[in-house]
Amino acid sequence: MSEKSGRDVVSDREYNETVLSGLYEEYYDKLARYAYLRIGNRSDAEDLAGEVFLRALKSLKSYKDQGIPMGAWLFKIAHNLVVDYLRKKQKQKTVPIEDVQIESGVNPTITVEKKLEIERVKKAMEQLTQQQREVLGLRFFTGLTSGETAKLLNRNDGSIREMQRAAIEKLRRLLSTDE
Amino acid sequence: MMPDNFDMILDECIERINQGEGVDAILDDYPDYSEQLRPLLNTVLSSKEAYSFTPSPDNKQVAKERFNLALNAILQKREGSRRWLTWFTGQPRVWAPAIVVILLVIAGYFILRPTLFPVEPITESDFDETTVDTQPDADVVSPDLQPDTEPAAIVLQPSPEGNFAFLISDDVNAIGDFDSVIITISEISLLKSDDIDQSIEFKPEQEEVDLTLVQGDKTQEIWRGNVPEGEYKNVTIEVEKVLGILKETGAAYQSVSK
After folding, report:
1. What is the spatial distance between Cα B226 and Cα B246, in angstroms, rounded to a whole number?
2. Is the interface score ipTM higher than 0.85?
3. B175 CB burial (10 A radius; 0-12, 13-18, 19+)
4. Interchain pair A83, B51: CB under 8 A
5. Domain coverage including residue A51
6. Following DSSP, what letter does each residue of A121-153 receive, concatenated?
7. What is the distance between the alpha carbons of residues A159 and A162, in angstroms, rounded to a whole number?
8. C-alpha distance from residue A62 to each of A67, B30, B66, B145 (Å)
9. Which residues of chain A neighbour B136 with C-beta distances below 8 Å?
């Protein structure tokens, strides 16, 4: 493989900057939902989604070596930020504030039931391992296939599918015993 | 062809849920597994619903503006470099003296270095592995899930002969109404500005500082030790407690960070 000239490298970076900028609208929400599942705090999840793009911009020169689509690479950065966030939170010994928001103008009985159901799911989700939550977060909210998820996490496809099934079964057990 | 592995079938079903298909429609294609799949797919739907929220448009806009600012700064910097490079490469007579100057600077550095820096500069590799906190918690993240860019924290120990001293000072009159303002600092972290962010952390030897005694030119050293060479972009001071006593009333105000 021949060495790229300085001009080519700059062109690559300019191209990647344009691609990254174009991904903002589509990926900000996905990143926020992924982070929310991992850290359980909506406001911090939104901050983290914005931070992902700043980190990506700063590290674009290393992107070419990743061998994964830029969208998936953003989730790799998000994973790093989540890990860093959890590490700091653990040191601070803070408890995430529940921040369920219910839309106005709906039947209050349904709202309460829905809120309770959401709370039940979240409590069950908290009992999964970080690895299981990671896999479910990536599979449910990012649009990544199990194969892409496997590549991102340096695993093989089979182990991701197995972990996914085990996590969903555990969630189901937790939710059914809680009923 | 239908896959014979249940994990693969479930995976296909999740893919179809992600694309917006309903559970009944999906199960129609897997009649043999319908009983097993239904509760799992309902669990998938419940989970997705619990975490599906629409981020605040305002927060999204603010974050996008920050991103655009950062992008524009990069573009402007690059444009400036290009203009300089274009001028420089268009001046053939500039090359010879420029190369001489660069060589002199490089040679000067190596000749003068033993005099200027009698002690070998500290590098990260000089630190004992036992002081490196790269393992957050087994439950927080598995080591095999940590990508290459995992931010690591190096915990430093104090040393009286260290190359770095951390001093605290405060603006004059910023706290003029107080008889004393004692802050308790639990930790200080420095963030390197390399490609891979690296946090350097240390606990102050002197945890408490009365800010009223370190105003203006006055300072108080709270830590000294060896910090790895490099560029740092951020300093974070974790203040555990602030206790202020008002001059006029003697009233005490305390803030504790949990």
Report:
1. 38
2. no
3. middle
4. no
5. 1-99
6. HHHHHHTS-HHHHHHHHHHHHS---HHHHHHHT
7. 5
8. 10, 44, 21, 19
9. 83, 86-87, 90
pLDDT for B150? 45
A67 in the same domain as A132: no
In chain B, residues with a C-beta closer than 8 Å to the C-beta of A24 are: 64, 67
The helices-and-strands tally (H runs, E runs) of chain B is 5, 9
- Position B5, amino acid: N
Residue among B11, B66, B140 whose CB faces A54 most closely: B66
List, run by run, the mean pLDDT of 10-residue segments along chain B (258 residues).
74 93 94 93 91 88 92 81 57 54 55 52 42 37 41 77 81 72 86 70 87 80 83 80 77 67
Contacts of A149 (CB under 8 A, 6+ apart): A135, A138, A139, A142, A160
Q: Which residue do the tokens 């053939």 mark?
A: B92
Q: Give me the helices (H) in A40-156, please.
A: 42-58, 60-63, 70-92, 108-126, 130-141, 146-152
Do the Cβ atoms of B192 and B243 come closer than 8 Å? no
What's the whole-number average pLDDT of chain B? 73
Indicate yes or no: CB of B18 within 8 angstroms of CB of A49: no
Q: Which of A75, A99, A123 is the last residue of a domain?
A: A99
Q: Among all chains, which residue has been given the structure tokens 């924290």? A: B153
Task: Flag if B144 and A84 touch (Cβ within 8 Å).
Answer: no
Domain boundary (A82, A99, A116) is at: A99
Q: In the structure, what pLDDT confidence band is assigned to residue A1 with cuts at 50, 70 and 90?
A: very low
Q: How many Å apart are CA B230 and CA B190, to the nearest integer?
A: 11
**Judgement on whether residues A92 and A112 belong to the same structural domain of the protein:** no
Question: What would the pLDDT profile of B44-74 be if each residue is shown by its tens digit?
Answer: 998 988 888 889 999 999 999 999 999 988 8
- A64 & A136 share domain: no
Q: Which parts of chain B fold into alpha helices (H)? A: 6-18, 23-28, 34-51, 57-89, 92-116
Residue indicated by tokens 């849920």: B17
Q: Which residues pair with B221 in a beta bridge?
A: B167
| A86 and A153 together in one domain | no
- For the entire predicted model, the pTM comes to 0.54
Are the C-beta atoms of residues A83 and B150 closer than 8 Å to each other? yes
**CB-based contacts of B232, cutoff 8 Å, min separation 6:** B190, B191, B192, B193, B200
Q: Tell me the CATH number at A144.
A: 1.10.10.10
Number of domains in chain A: 2
In B36-144, the DSSP E strands lie at 132-133
